[in-house]
Description:
Elements: E1 6-8, E2 14-16, E3 20-31, E4 45-57, E5 60-65, H1 67-72, E6 89-92, E7 98-99, E8 103-104, H2 109-120, E9 129-132, H3 134-137
Parallel strand pairs: 3-9
Antiparallel strand pairs: 1-2, 3-4, 4-5, 4-6, 7-8
Amino acid sequence: MIDSKTITSDIGLKINLYNVKRAYCELHSVTPRISRKLSIDEIKYFYVKDYFLVTNDQGEEVHHKISRFLYKEGHLKNPTGKYRYINLYRVKNDYKCWQYGEYPKDLYHPIKWGINRPFFRDDYYIENFSVIGVDEILNR
């Protein structure tokens, strides 16, 4: 377990992980991209714009982008193919299932492995997680 419970956001601000209320990511696309309703087990990769931690500092919600931190820790990968030159991150669809019926399970894993496990030894310390764009992209 890491002693300090702070990480640095993508713009250099320190984030006290005890103040985190929720986390989310912005889903940009998936491969293969098909116009019909896409089943979760047909997806090879998720392409994510960014990951965020939300803190409540003095009554005000602050959204901290942490994509660079998760990338440096090895939890996000560079995109390939047509997404290679766009500022996106790639997450492989290993589990091919939904978490709580709300979002693909693999999209939670960067938070689970990059924040929860090393800082708190609890895979679900920050469990309030959502995915922006999941319904539109997956045609649910």
